[in-house]
Amino acid sequence: MTFKEKGPLMIDRTKLPNSFEFIVTAGARARQLMAGSIPRVVTGEHKKTTVAQQEVVTKAVEKMEIGEVRLPNAD
Question: How far apart (Å, rounded) are the C-alpha atoms in residues 74 and 60?
Answer without folding.
Answer: 25
